[in-house]
Specification:
178 residues; alpha/beta; Glutaredoxin; 5-stranded mixed β-sheet; 5 helices; globular; Thioredoxin_domain
């Protein structure tokens, strides 16, 4: 009777360790390549869509989310805080809010805060597929030449923002100043 309980405890501990020590930085074939060509209309209630041309000339962050995604809600306060710092422009691809009414994205931002400089509505999901998105949210750091420099899968927390994402942003910004 003791052996099954010990095996269960060991297995549970291994699963817990794996969850707590997962690496949210996944390899992507797009790292170092130009962002995919796209031109998205704005979400309802805004007049600023997003295109690949908008991602040229300065280091930026692209965040892919949907209003129905609970994990997307988790990271919005950090995005709002980052936007208030003015460190880097944050753009958005609003992914497939099709099951929701057209104004769901704007209602989400009214409720949570709007950290985005530009937002493109990807109603078909094709742009997200071209970016290699397979889960929400996903966050990309784009260099000043419009190339993908970093990809983070899932909601980020303060640690991953400060230790993973922002160091890439700072490095790219300093390379641009050199």
């Amino acid at each position: 009777m003791l052996l099954p309980a010990a095996l269960f405890a060991a297995l549970a501990a291994a699963f817990y360790w794996g969850l707590m020590n997962s690496d949210d930085r996944l390899p992507s074939a797009l790292i170092g390549r130009a962002v995919p060509e796209f031109d998205l209309p704005p979400i309802e209630g805004r007049d600023d869509g997003l295109s690949s041309a908008d991602l040229q000339g300065e280091v930026s962050i692209v965040n892919v989310w949907a209003s129905w995604s609970v994990p997307c809600r988790v990271e919005v306060p950090l995005l709002v805080e980052l936007a208030a710092r003015g460190t880097v422009p944050i753009h958005d691809i609003n992914d497939k809010d099709a099951p929701d009414p057209p104004d769901a994205a704007l209602a989400f931002l009214d409720e949570t805060g709007d950290p985005y400089t530009r937002i493109g509505a990807d109603r078909s999901g094709h742009a997200s597929i071209d970016w290699g998105v397979y889960g929400l949210p996903e966050t990309f750091v784009i260099d000043a030449q419009g190339r993908i420099a970093y990809k983070h899968v899932g909601p980020f927390d303060r640690r991953s923002l400060e230790q993973d994402i922002l160091p890439v942003v700072r490095r790219l910004q300093s390379e641009g100043d050199a």
